[in-house]
Design a protein that fits this description.
- By secondary structure, the chain is α/β, with parallel strands linked by helices.
- It has helices at about 5-20, 25-30, 50-60, 90-120, 140-150, 165-175, 175-185, 200-210, 220-230, 250-255, 265; strands spanning about 35-45, 45-50, 65-70, 75, 80-90, 130, 165, 195, 215, 235-240, 260, 275.
């Protein structure tokens, strides 16, 4: 049996509940409830696989068994079989759409992430890709696992596992220096303090205040390069805003430490997979 976090189990339960609240009228009307069968998950396009455990758990919750021969993070070619399921045909068909919804969505996130990671590598540097909190409500842990499967790195999982001082925090605190001072005084020793800035003056203020990281918000390529030179290794830098696959090699070439992209989660296209009875 595939084991999931308690939160993922709740998502599976909710997803099945919304699809089967009134039963499966079609299968109940047309199929022998005792008939057993087997089906296969097929990739219909090139993709990076993710979400196999949660997809398998959907089938298990309805009494079927499921095994994926390819794992999360594997690159799969269109036409390849990635997993099989066995059980009552009514259970297989009742689980089909819900399992595919998880698998297609999460594989879409992993695929988008891998493309971005590969684009950064073209810049010839060491820049790492970060995700954001711009995730589907309730799906954050699953989507961030898909980011890791695609080769990306997780930023904050929630508001509580890191300090990111943004423009509104600065305005409400009375300035960068005061915001960082308060954060140092009140936060746990293991929490990193990151400050968002929009120009080199803000970068100087964040470094002087003792920030651990600085987020360069919506700077152009020349501005990012200037910030890397100005920081000179005194603080790690994250670039964010208006990042596209075409732009990523140029941004990586500046030598910035991290690039964060909300698009790999909030705008990832669900990839094409199907489930077919043999």
């Amino acid at each position: 049996m595939h084991r999931l976090s308690a939160q993922a189990e709740r998502l599976v339960e909710l997803a099945l509940e919304e699809d089967l609240a009134l039963g499966d009228a079609t299968s109940e009307a047309t199929l022998d409830p005792a008939a057993a069968g087997e089906g296969a998950f097929l990739a219909k396009e090139d993709l990076v696989l993710a979400g196999t455990a949660v997809a398998a758990r959907v089938l298990e919750r309805l009494g079927a068994s499921c095994r994926f021969g390819r794992g999360d993070g594997d690159r799969v070619r269109g036409g390849e079989e990635v997993g099989t399921a066995r059980g009552r045909v009514t259970a297989l068909l009742a689980a089909e759409r819900t399992a595919l919804n998880f698998l297609q969505r999460l594989s879409g996130v992993a695929t988008a992430t891998r493309r971005a990671v590969e684009a950064l590598a073209q810049g010839g540097g060491r820049t790492r890709l970060l995700d954001t909190r711009k995730t589907t409500p309730g799906f954050r842990l699953l989507e961030k696992a898909a980011v890791r499967a695609g080769g990306g790195t997780n930023h904050r999982l929630s508001l509580g596992d890191g300090i990111l001082i943004k423009d509104n925090h600065v305005a409400a605190s009375g300035g960068v220096a005061e915001a960082v001072r308060r954060a140092r005084a009140r936060a746990g020793a293991l929490l990193r303090i990151e400050v968002e800035v929009v120009d080199l003056a803000g970068l100087d203020a964040a470094i002087a205040a003792g920030a651990d990281l600085v987020l360069l918000d919506n700077m152009d390529d020349a501005g990012i390069a200037a910030a890397v030179a100005r920081a000179a290794g005194r603080v790690r830098l994250e670039a964010s805003g208006n990042m596209t696959l075409e732009r990523l090699p140029r941004v990586a070439a500046t030598g910035v430490d991290f690039v964060s992209m909300g698009a790999i989660t909030h705008s990832a296209r669900a990839v094409d997979l199907s489930f077919e009875l043999r």
